[in-house]
Every structure is written in C-alpha cells, then in structure tokens.
Predict the 3D structure of the following.
Amino acid sequence: MLEQLLKEERVILDLKSKDKESVLEELLEPLNLPEERKKLVLEALKKRESIGSTGIGKGIAIPHTRSVVLDDVYLVVGRSKEGVDFQALDGKPVHLFFLLCAPPQDPGTRYLITLGMIANIARKIIKSDEYMKIQDKREFIDYLLRMEKEE
Amino acid sequence: MDPILEILIALGDIDAMIRDAESPEYKELGLTEDEDPIEKLKKLREECASKLPPNILKRYEKLKKKYGRGIAPVVGGICTNCFIHLPTSLVTRPDKNKKLETCPNCGIYVYWTK
C-alpha cells in the first residue's frame, strides 16, 4: 500500500520553508491541485494542526487531514535540512514530514492504515540520522520501504 | 466558488476529522498530545456551522443523519455518496461549484472535483 503512495514526484528532499504554514503549502505543491482546491486542503490541514501539532517529536511530523475536495489518498514526503519550527511536541525543529490527505470516505480505509504505517516507520527512523544523508529520491523511497518491513 | 459551498466543505472536513478522532484505530496512533481533541473539533464545528443559513444547516444535518455525511465529492461524474453517474447535462456544465448543488438521486450536497 505504501509503495503505491510513495512516488518520486511526491518526495521533496530539500524543503525551503521555515514556518508551519508555508511548509504545509510547500508540501501540497507536488499534488498539482488547482489553486482553489489547494487552499481548501491547506485550511483543513491548519484546522487539524489547531487541535494539536502533528509534530510528534524527534524531528518528525505527520500532518494529515481528510477533505471533501480530494478524489484520492495522497502522500508527500518532505525533508528539511535546516528544520522547520512546527510547534512539535518536544519543541524541536522538524526535519522530516509525511503529509497524508484523503477524501472523507476511502475504500479499504487506506488513510488510517497508511497513517499507522507512517507512525510505525517514524518510530524506527528516529533511531539514526540516515534519512538526512540520502541524496536521491528513489533511494529515499527504498529506504522508507525498507524501514516499513524492518522488525 | 459558491461561498456557502465553501463553508459546507469546511464542515464536511471537520465532520470527517471528528469521525476519525472517535475511531479506535486513530486513537491508537497517539498522534495528538491533547486529551480531548474531539471537544476542540466540536468547537470548530460549531463556529463553522454558525456561518451557514439555518435552512442549509438543517438540510446538511438531516443528510448527515441519513448518510453519515452531508456533502460528497463527485469524482469522474459519479456521486461518491450513492455511486450514481450524474446526468451528462450536469457533468458537462462549465459553472460547476459556482452554485450550491445536490445530487439528483440521493440529495446530498456535491462538490465537483474535476
């Protein structure tokens, strides 16, 4: 399932944004949504963040939302070398983002299952800083898939 | 876009977030530090719902009671609530989302994704 969602064009290895709102916007860019829909998804993401940051700590955030304006489940992975102030739970800058968004209803509840997979990967990759060193998008995807399978 | 449609979309998104937040699968993930995110979401919902004309809100709530949601995207000409292919006359119209519309089959408010 994760393999189907992880696409090279939805991996950003060098995020430019420095703050919460602009990084969410930058992470939405690869979806190529029309401006009107992009704005509505951004609003939904901000609403979700307003009830508690999805910056789970140790440099990782999993911003996620459902939105009526989406027609599929989308995953975008972004890495920031300098880190972003995302009001994470531990107060530290976030270096790795997994943005997941989906329509309100999705067959097979891919959204919640994928959220679980990402949370699981996140717990594994915080053990080293390997994810900060990878220079190639394909390698980055392979690394994440390897981490998913690792016990 | 129709301004009422925009509020209905926001309301639909919040309702979907509440549904997730209430599900055991989501709670298990522990993605929020807050002890009661549902209360915060319900407050957001109230604020959003208060911007709607009473008749629209009443209809939305009625639909939500019946189908679990009050608004659904139309994808590829198909209403994702009742899975009926909408008439070509509607699908090909250039002013989609410019006015508030409902599915002619199930009556749910619709948002055209394309």
Q: What stands out?
A: DSSP finds five helices and three strands in chain B. Residues 26 and 45 of chain B are 19 Å apart (CA to CA). Chain B has a mean pLDDT of 91.
